[in-house]
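Lay summary. Proteins are chains of building blocks that fold into shapes, and those shapes determine what they do. In this project we predict the shape from the chain. Here is one chain we studied, written as its sequence of building blocks.
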Amino acid sequence: MRLPSGKRITQTDKLKKTLQTWATEQEAKIAQGHKVNPRAGRITVKEWHAKWWSARVVEDETRRGDSGCFKHHILPYWEEWRLGDIGRIDVQAWVRTMEQNDVGRHAIRRSCNLLVALLGDAVIEGLIPVSPCQKVDLPATPPKAPAWFTRSQIDVIEAELPAGHAAMVELMGYTGLRWGEAAGVAGADRDNKTGNPIDWLRGRLQVRGTIDGKSAKWKQYPKTSSSRREVPVPAHVLDQLAPLLVGRPRDAWMFVTRRRSPKTGERALLGSANWRVVWYAGIDAANKKVEEANWQLPEAARLAPVPRLDPHDCRHTAASWLVQNGVPLYNVQALLGHKSYQTTTRYAHLAPDAHSAVEDAWSKINAHQERTESNLGPVTSLRPAAT
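And here is the predicted shape, written in a compact code that computers can read:
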């Protein structure tokens, strides 16, 4: 039998049953941490992180975000600690320190999850017997209520955007595509199976990948397995998209920049940073016109400014519009590609009949009260009078 440290131990006995009992006991001790090499726990977090990070398999976007957590929140605190010296209370103290330093709740949770993964793999490798990250209290992260645009707000924003950007906003606002999914739309199925192609006759769009907003490169897989889906596209949105392909190949990328790729000669894919610049400039221009219009209107009739929301809120807009118009949450889940139904329930309060049962009950209570008062007169109290 080999220990987690690599050392080999043996036992001899004439009886096979005795050897089996011994082997079972040794395996139990290894599982309980009694046979972990004590030298392994002397490895520092910095040393283990260097080995662990190079072997980790994650998406580039995830790696960039995780790298920031390690750089700012994890390694500055833990890098000189030896793995075997870290206890649960030490992890709890670290969480408390981040709270006192005003680190955001989501950043704390992400950093703690990364430390759990880092030390969990150290347990698997036999460097420490158990993870010290068990039963650590983390700050609560209340879910943020989804924000959305009204139809008129989308209209005034699109009026200030270039044709390609306006069409992409309309597409996201009706189909609920994520930004990367919309940026990866192609006019037809491409030979190399890249892009999310449109079936113009059926009015459908196949989502099978996404554009990495930072690298502006196609990724052959969307966010989750549920994100691979087919979504309907309204006819008026198809009418906005069609002119973008004039003079270009039928299977070209729908949304592109003005510059061309030096390798293929095609116009380059969109990056999220530049797209956001144009997006927010459009909102600011729309609000400037709203402000100018309000000078000529009485105070009671003045228009509200357009909220400076994130492009991802176009996805929330699609879901909100549908739920407010009575579309069941299960249909919205399928359209948006949510892996969990629980994620979709954040829009449940927008349903027109969300509180109908409560309101019906109120009506019955009030009707019963009116009938009682008409028969007995006003009832001021149900308690007997004091004697």
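What the prediction tells us: The two ends are 88 Å apart (CA to CA).
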